[in-house]
Amino acid sequence: MADERSSGGDPAGYLGWFFLGALMGAAAALLLTPKTGQETRELLLEKGGDFSKRAQEYAKDAQVRAGELYDKGREFFEEQSQRLATAFEAGKEAMKEEIGKARREK
How far is residue 51's CA from residue 22's CA, in Å, rounded to a whole number? Predict the structure, then answer.
């Protein structure tokens, strides 16, 4: 399972790269506009701060959702493991009963 996560990629990592690309694209667009250096720097600082705050909020939300999904997955796995163990024990008991019946019939 750990191999699947490492080879499948990390969704949070992809989200981070997406935001980084968007930030760099926005910075490039602002740098190429016909504004003065001071105006551009002020605009970059303003937009960069807003973008950073939004990115942090999205990252926190993604982390919470990932934790919830992990917990649900773990609960499901534990439930299924318990069901399997119960079914195995029931099958073992049924087999013992059938062996006992077969020995008594001989």
Answer: 9
Nearest-angstrom CA–CA distance, 72 and 89: 26
**DSSP codes, 31-43:** HTSSS-HHHHHHH
Q: For residue 69, what are the domain limits?
A: 2-105
DSSP-assigned letter for residue 9: -
Q: Single out the residue of 75, 76, 59, 56 nearest to residue 10, CA to CA.
A: 59
Q: Using the structure block, give the residue that is written with the tokens 């609960």.
A: 75
Model pTM score: 0.44
Backbone φ and ψ for 47, nearest 5 degrees, come out as -70, -35
Contacts of 44 (CB under 8 A, 6+ apart): 27, 30, 31
Segment-wise mean pLDDT, segments of 10 residues, the chain, 106 residues = 51 77 78 73 76 84 90 94 94 91 81
Compute the Cα dihedral for 36, 39, 42, 43 and give only its sign: negative
How many separate domains does the chain show?
1
